[in-house]
């Protein structure tokens, strides 16, 4: 992990991970979840990238992939790469990714198409605002919800 000091915005933590395809996926997931839990408690902007060797295209048919995607999402870490990153004559997998945990910034991401490597290189660009003006995020506040009144009106 590396923390980048960004004087005009919040600091950014960058992590790079490689999981060998034959390594223990449970141990890797435990390590990732502990790391993002710590970053979340510190309210840090984070980018986690690498060759996870977890095919996100199998999230609906592979239990550990589903756990990975759902847990990352519960910490507001969303995948920035949505198309396959390793394509062969017989398969297409999404095993390389970049996860980002902020919706405040405009981002651009994708794959670079090349036949030089067996994995497509990924890119991720964050557009920081030039002004100090922040985007106002709206969300529902259920703290003052009167459940009885809500049910009565339904």
Broad shape: globular
Number of helices: 3
- Radius of gyration using CA atoms only: 19 Å
CATH architecture: 4-Layer Sandwich
At the fold tier of CATH, the topology name is Deoxyribonuclease I, Chain A
Q: Count of DSSP E strands?
A: 9
| Share of β-strand residues | 25-35%
What is the CATH class name? Alpha Beta
* Low-confidence blocks of residues: none
Classify the helix fraction into a percent range: 10-25%
CATH homologous superfamily annotation: Endonuclease/exonuclease/phosphatase
Order of helices and strands: EEHEHEEEEEEH
Order of strands across the widest beta sheet?
1-2-3-7-4
Arithmetic mean pLDDT: 88
Judged by helices, strands and strand pairing, the structural class is alpha+beta
Largest sheet: 5 strands, mixed
Describe it.
- The chain is an alpha+beta fold.
- It has a single domain (2-153), classed as Deoxyribonuclease I, Chain A, CATH 3.60.10.10.
- It is 23% helix and 26% strand.
- Strands 1-2-3-7-4 form a 5-stranded mixed sheet, with helices on one face.
- Helix 1 (25-41) runs parallel beside helix 2.
- The relative contact order is 0.14.
Ordered list of secondary-structure elements with their pairings:
Elements: E1 2-4, E2 12-18, H1 25-41, E3 45-51, H2 63-74, E4 78-79, E5 86-87, E6 92-93, E7 96-100, E8 106-111, E9 122-127, H3 147-153
Parallel strand pairs: 2-3
Antiparallel strand pairs: 1-2, 3-7, 4-7, 5-6, 8-9
Helix pairs in contact: 1-2
